[in-house]
Write a structure and sequence with these properties.
Length: 195
């Protein structure tokens, strides 16, 4: 466990023992990335409230099942994302889908970045969002997605390539000198900095 994760892991254990202050700390640490992640799933990049509503439901599940959680800080984030994803997919089953956003020229801000991720096919959007927004590694992203780490890595790379293609010329000048033209990793790093 990384040294920086030790206080977070202690907060998890304290919250499991009923410490409300520790639970509030967990909530404040994880909630913002969960809302952004859920927004990419439910198409709430414009902020119409669905992501907040779905994430609030996920926090009910997190609070209910917290005592059963066993793992480190990054595993906790993955576990929360998995519960949020389940809520988001249930939400999508209960409503008709809307159109996906079109390409956005220029350097996207945070909301446009989320819209671009949400534009991706579901598998790629999930994988990119879990890596870029929630900060999970391939193994924990695979846990959330119910797939293998290789499949999670592959979906992430496909998603990054699609985003690089979508950004086109706007991304070409953003990479440092010497970076290969159309390098998906460079493009995604540039694009996701604004989140």
């Amino acid at each position: 466990m990384a040294e920086a994760d030790a206080p977070f892991a202690e907060a998890i254990r304290a919250a499991q023992a009923g410490d409300e202050t520790a639970f509030v700390h967990l909530y404040r640490s994880v909630h913002p990335c969960l809302v952004r992640y859920v927004g990419t799933l439910v198409g709430d990049a414009a902020g119409d409230g669905d992501a907040e509503e779905v994430t609030a439901g996920a926090w009910q599940d997190i609070a209910r099942d917290l005592r059963a959680f066993d793992g480190d800080a990054l595993s906790f984030r993955a576990w929360c994302a998995r519960l949020a994803r389940a809520r988001a997919l249930a939400h999508l089953r209960d409503r008709p889908g809307g159109p996906r956003p079109e390409g956005v020229p220029g350097r996207p801000d945070g909301g446009r970045t989320l819209a671009l991720i949400a534009w991706l096919p579901r598998a790629e959007a999930d994988a990119v969002a879990l890596r870029a927004i929630v900060g999970l590694d391939a193994e924990r992203a695979a846990y959330v997605l119910g797939t293998s780490p290789a499949a999670a890595r592959s979906a992430t790379l496909r998603g990054l390539r699609l985003l690089a293609d979508q950004l086109g010329d706007a991304a070409a000048g953003a990479c440092p000198a010497g970076a290969p033209a159309g390098d998906a990793t460079c493009t995604a790093t540039w694009m996701l900095r604004g989140m």
